[in-house]
Specification:
The chain is α/β, with parallel strands linked by helices and 563 residues long. It has 3 domains: 163 residues, Glycogen Phosphorylase B (Rossmann fold, 3-Layer(aba) Sandwich), CATH 3.40.50.2000; 181 residues, Glycogen Phosphorylase B (Rossmann fold); 191 residues, no CATH class. Helices cover 43% and strands 16% of the residues. The protein contains 22 helices and 21 strands. It has a 6-stranded parallel β-sheet, sandwiched between helices. Strands 6-7-8-9 form a 4-stranded parallel β-sheet. Helix 3 links the parallel strand 6 and strand 7. Helix 3 packs across helix 4. The chain is elongated. The relative contact order is 0.08.
Length: 563
């Protein structure tokens, strides 16, 4: 499917593909006119490649739109680390159904990436409605059904001769199954449903359950009425579709989110018997229109549906022809590619209306932020407990304080700090800038602010990519500045405010280190603009070192020189 999209999009969008290699070296080639980079892999954890340089390549190759095909833990983790400039689009193929410990580790990462996505593409409305991961972002979902190339399924003279040979070989009516021999495909249910049917069933595919299914077929006495076929080439596969009388997809698990093989059978004019899963399977094969749909795992219902079609040639012909028309109308690769390219253009156009001046962030800065914040979160955990107890004992209020802040590109994010002010400070005093003697600050808060320990929870924002260690201070969206004449001035009207959105906000920066906390915003913004112009990795290192020194001395609230 990825190959069909990448090659089909040529001419509409310029596509490059990034994937994990199976070897410990990075290889680049052009396939079907599409540049493909396979990143060196040190091995695999399950099916996930261990590719340390994947974030670097993602950063290097990223364009206006970054597309991740999910489930893809490697790509999601690399995106969070690299944070490439392009807008994110996720092709959500299926829910990740794994052992609980694995899913527990992956789920937060997937949710983070999905929240950051501009759009999420699903293959059917049922998948968007059923996948729990998509419910909080349902409005972002766009339905683009999978499509197939009709050419391989258009019968040639060779294919028709091979199909006739197959029918003579097996004598009886033919039932065809195509898929891997894995639990969710429901092959065991199919074998039980075949008992007593006057047909031969051809099962095409391999997998870990293959030998078990052979043994089950023997135990059920199916004998020569079932044939297991492996390593079938494309031409023979087309002949099998055209030779069969009925195609069956007996899947029992939600891993089967669409069933592309249904399209292949329908393109060949064959009726389909599939199962009523809460996925796109019954959406593709409409009951009574293109085939029959039965409850999953119900061998008796499957037996009856197959028997009904085998005994009614006219019904088979009607359903098969309606299926052929449905594929040609809604499920061609050209239609899928056209819809996808249009969505990419829409996302790219939306991006171009945003802050175009966003500067390209050095890869080293993002990697440094992710590594240092991750280490900081682990090492600072005892302090979290200490500060939480102190805040609770001080006034009994909540430990954390959450606020919307404005980040890179004007995007809002939720920032959390240890609460250093009285409860409901925003409601009681409004969104004001901090002052030298601030009546809102608690006793514990003065210590936390003096050492900047109130900012400690923002390590999580840095790890997520909302913030950096160094940059302009993250501001609230509706903050108000008071002018020299006493008039309220929205901060977005102050010179330098928009320029601050070119980079990620930071825990520390030139303004935080060198300016007093309560100087006017227009002066602070000058420091911020200076940092944006002069930023470098070594400037960040110097500012971080100075910040540690100020924290050690407890001078963050000090007016004048802090060191």
């Amino acid at each position: 499917m990825i190959q069909a999209l990448a090659e089909g999009e040529r001419g509409a969008v310029e596509t490059a593909v990034l994937a994990a290699n199976v070897r410990p070296r990075t290889e680049q080639e052009v396939r079907g006119g599409v540049p493909v980079t396979r990143v060196a892999s040190l091995g695999f954890v399950g099916t996930v490649g261990v590719c340390p340089t994947f974030p670097l390549w993602l950063r290097r190759l990223a364009g206006d739109v970054v597309v991740i095909h999910e489930p893809n833990p490697l790509a999601f983790a690399s995106y969070v680390v690299a944070r490439p400039r392009g807008k994110l689009v996720v092709w959500f193929h299926s829910q990740l159904i794994l052992h609980r410990w694995y899913y527990f580790m992956y789920r937060p990462l997937a949710r983070l990436a999905l929240r950051r996505a501009e759009r999420v593409i699903v293959s059917s409305p049922a998948l968007a409605d059923q996948a729990s991961e998509l419910q909080p972002i349902r409005a972002k979902c766009a339905v683009i059904p999978f499509g197939i190339d009709l050419a391989p399924w258009t019968p040639t003279d060779t294919v028709l001769r091979e199909a006739a040979t197959l029918r003579r070989q097996y004598h009886r009516p033919l039932i065809l199954f195509v898929g891997r021999m894995v639990p969710y495909k429901g092959v065991d249910v199919l074998l039980r449903a075949l008992v007593g049917l006057p047909a031969t069933t051809l099962l095409v595919g391999s997998g870990p359950l293959l030998e078990g299914m052979r043994a089950l077929a023997r135990d059920l006495g199916l004998g020569d009425r079932v044939a297991f076929l492996e390593d079938v080439d494309d031409e023979r596969m087309a002949a099998l579709y055209h030779a069969c009388d009925v195609f069956v997809l007996p899947s029992v698990g939600t891993n089967e989110t669409f069933g592309i093989v249904q399209l292949e059978a329908m393109a060949c004019g064959k009726p389909v018997v599939s199962t009523q899963l809460p996925t796109g399977v019954p959406w593709v094969n409409r009951h009574g229109e293109t085939g029959l749909v039965v409850p999953p795992g119900d061998a008796r219902a499957l037996h009856e549906a197959l028997g009904r079609l085998l005994g009614d040639p006219a019904l088979r012909s009607t359903l098969g022809e309606q299926g052929r028309r449905r594929v040609r109308s809604d499920f061609t690769v050209e239609r899928m590619v056209g819809r996808t390219a249009a969505l990419y253009r829409e996302v790219a156009a939306t991006a171009s209306k945003g802050p175009e001046a966003m500067r390209r962030e050095p890869v080293s800065k993002r990697i440094f932020d992710a590594l240092l914040s991750g280490a900081g979160l682990c090492l600072s955990s005892p302090l979290w407990l200490l500060f939480s107890l102190a805040i609770k004992l001080d006034d009994g209020g909540p430990v954390f304080y959450a606020q919307d802040r404005v980040g890179r590109g004007g995007r809002r994010f939720k920032s959390r700090k240890f609460r250093s002010m009285v409860k409901d400070a925003d409601r009681r005093f409004g969104p004001l800038q901090a002052q030298e003697v601030d009546p809102r600050v608690t006793r514990v808060g003065r210590i936390l602010r003096g050492t900047a320990m109130d900012e400690l929870p923002q390590l999580w924002n840095i790890f997520r990519g909302d913030m950096s260690f160094v940059g302009p201070r993250a501001l609230m969206p509706e903050e108000i500045e008071t002018s020299a004449t006493g008039e309220p001035v929205p901060i977005e009207k102050i010179a330098g405010y928009q320029a601050r959105h070119e980079v990620r906000p930071g825990l520390t920066g030139i303004a935080q280190v060198f300016a007093d906390r309560d100087i006017p915003r227009r002066q602070k913004f000058r420091y911020d603009v200076l940092y944006i112009r002069k930023q470098s990795f070594w400037l960040d290192i110097r500012l971080i070192a100075l910040s540690f020194w100020i924290t050690f001395r407890g001078k963050w609230e000090h007016r004048g020189r802090k060191f």
